[in-house]
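Please describe the entry underneath.
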Amino acid sequence: MKTILHKADTRGNANHGWLHSRHTFSFANYHNPERVHFGVLRVLNDDVVQGGMGFGTHPHDNMEIISIPLEGALEHKDSMGSKTVIHQNDVQIMSAGTGVFHSEYNHNAEQPVNFLQIWVFPKEKNIKPRYDQITFDPEERVDRWQRVVSPNEEGAVWINQDAYFSLGRLTEGTTLDYELAQPGNGVYVFVLKGDVTVGDQNLHQRDGLGIWSTDKITVQANSESEVLLMDIPMSVN
């Protein structure tokens, strides 16, 4: 088993007033040559957008873009005709493919929205752009892994990559095993809340741990915790 640790306080920090973003990997004005990507996981941004503010219309292509709201509501509009609002317990994916324009705004004028914006390199380039979102029952992730992103599983949001995302809400003292979805994949553990131990590594809120050269990991909750697992290919095409 090989690992790489990214502590929460080592992330890139961009505070624009209306937007406060923490970057696990190089993004915009934050560049760290040792933290460009982990396998096909290219971007992991922890964004807080103030009330009524947001990202104006801008383009993307050949990237899988996943949004996971943690608090508040995010309004999405794109050139495919999608116009939606996503909330906590929703997971959204936009497969940019040959190219798409979109905007993202805080749906509420009075309170901030906190969401994860995650980019994954696609398996197949230049596909027709695609949009999808699903609302998940949070009770289905209590002391177990709830699959929310998959290329081939019913009930998960589809992704153009051999990537599998799972959420877990662990009560204190719970230990959960996770078996990687396929050979050659690694898993990036991102702690949303609480304190967990993975192997011999103690992780706290917003810490990230990349793990590869293994087929299984064990996560132990040292307090009530919420964890996102991103099971992804380690080779970038």
User: Anything to note?
Assistant: The longest strand covers residues 41-49. The chain has a mean pLDDT of 96. Residues 12-135 form a domain with the Jelly Rolls fold (CATH 2.60.120.10). The chain has two domains: 12-135, 138-233.
